[in-house]
Every structure is written in C-alpha cells, then in structure tokens.
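## Example pair
The file below holds two records. Each record gives the amino-acid sequence first, followed by its structure token line.
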Amino acid sequence: MADILQDFIIKESISRVFEIIVSPVAMDQWWTKRCSGEQKVGGIYQLWFGPAYDWRGTITKLAPSSDFELEISQADDDWNGTRVGFHCERRGGSTAVRFYHTGWPEANEHYRISCYCWAMYLRILKRHIEFGETVPYERRLEV
C-alpha cells in the first residue's frame, strides 16, 4: 500500500484552522466544488467535484481542534477505502498540521497525480487561512 503524507505550519489559531479543515462550507474554499454533510462521527460528506466526481466520505475521527478523518466510500476505485485525515497541534501562535491520505492499493499513476493535487490543495488551504486568498475551483491546480 502507498500513503500520501504532508506536514506544514499555518500561522493561525488551531480553532480557526480546524474549523476550515472540517466545515463542509469551508472545504469549498480550498478542496471541493461543493461539499455538504453532517459534522459528526458517522456523518457522511458529499464531496462534489463535478458531475463525474460525486463522491462520499464517512467521518471516522472527529476530535475538536485536533483530529478529522474521512473514509472514502464512493469515489474512483483507487480512492475507495482510503482515509483522508488531519491532525492539528498548537505550535506557539501557529498550528502544525499533519495531513495523510492512507490506504492506496498501489503507487500507480492515479496515486502520483493525487500526490501532486494534495500538495496544491493544501497550499491553497494554507494561503486561504493565512491571507484570505480564494482561488476559483477551476484554477486550483494551476496556482
């Protein structure tokens, strides 16, 4: 199995960082085109990226200002059963974020593309929180 791991610092309070990571409405600012769902363990998020990419994930971890994890249940075959998660820790006046996307069946072409895409989305997340930048969905992998 292959995993995607990213660690980075966001210069903002842990409560604000965590809320933007887990809020379906806020996800639309850095990852999804449209997200909805119930913010509780067992809650299902609809992760919509366009007509051909209407995905689902179930919240498997949710600890306030600390941990958030989705198990992907309806997506491309390579994503099904994988887990996308965040662990946040206070680091002075900033927040240390440990991101993971684990359980890939193999390090194939789709995995390699997703490694790149996650780096881009996480950069947009950081810049959105730190500087208030908003990038239109269609341009997110170009900035």
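Second record, same layout:
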Amino acid sequence: MRMLLRLLPLLVVLGVVAPPAAAEVECQDMDGSQISGCVSTDGPWVSTPPRTGDNQYAGVWEVDCQPNQALVGTDWTTPSFLQLGDLLVYIQQFGAQRLFGDAPGALFLAVNPKTAARSFMPSIGCLPSSATAGARAAGFRAPRTFTHNLRPGREATHRHRCRRGERLVHSTTGVGFFKEQPPSARELRDVEVDHRQRRGRAIVTVTTGRRAGDNERVALQIHVTCRR
C-alpha cells in the first residue's frame, strides 16, 4: 500500500491520507505524469509502536535530498497486511512559506492508533536545484537530526542539546530498519526506546535484543528543535 502526501506551505504539521496510489508517487505531478529528472529516495522501515501518553508521534524519520537537490514530492509505504487508518502519517517542514520546491527534505511523523507495533517506509522525490544550498546555509533545516547505528544486545544512552544561545523546544526519536522487507513483529519488539527531555537536553536510552541489527543496519534518529 502506498499513500500520497502532497502538502501546502508548512509552518505547522499537516497531514493528508489519500487512497492507494501508483508506485513512485513521490515523483509524479498532480496530474499523474512523471516529473522529468526526479530521483526517488526511500528511507528505512520506521518502527511505529502504539501511541502512549505524550508519545503522540510514535514513528519519526527524516529523509533528505542530496546536496543541491530540492524536494518535489513525498509518499510512504506500509506492509500489505495493514488497512487504511492503521497508521496516520504526517510530514513537517520549517521556515516561512515553505513549499516542496525549496525544501531539502521532510520529517515524517506517524501515529499508530492500534495496540501492536507497525512500520512504514517514507519516500521522497528530488530534483536538482541551486536554491537548496541557500536554504541549508540560511539555517532552515530544523530540527537538527542526529543518527546513531545500533548494535544487537546492547544498551546505550545518547544525549543531544541545542547550541549555545538556543533553547530546546521539542525533541523526537525514531528507529529505522534498513532492509528490503518490513521488520517482523518480533524484530520491532527487539528495540526499546526511552526518550526524555531534561535540563535542555534530549536523553535517549536504547536497548536492543539479539536480532536487532544482526543481519541488517538498524539506526536511531534523534531530532532536536531549537529556538534562539
């Protein structure tokens, strides 16, 4: 199942859930034609545990275009057994009057209303653009994203904070499985994440079982949103 996401200018999170669409929707124009020169980029399978308490967005992952490319479309894929409404996926962009054409990437945020962990694969379409370098230099890429590879059978704690003179507004965490097929329910249960904000820092402790990262790359993303 692939779901189309095409959004208006973003200052806040907006979400659109559309009927199943054809492959490579992220590189299609609004009339369904392919965008010439568009390159499709897939993220990993993002673990999305059930929503609990303040953990509204259980699955979070940022996918970026290559340098000097700009975002022109987004899409996401779920395992074939999921039904419409099993996952609600949103994207987030930053900066005044941001449109796909001048953004270097997108942050995908998923809500899981079910009782079992799910996963989804985010995708973006990118085109060459000289405006992207300026957008990056101007500091539009927020939140700052830190990625750590995970190893099986380990417990590790990662801490990230804002730069001097900045205040931590919000932070989120995501776990991605880099593999062709979606992770099994057992693999999803094999990674436990404890995310906290304390004294201006994001503190994330990850515990992995024996199967998490044994035959594929599994990574943690921490997203820190800061304000001067």
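Notes on the second record: The radius of gyration is 17 Å. Residues 131-137 form the longest helix (7 residues).
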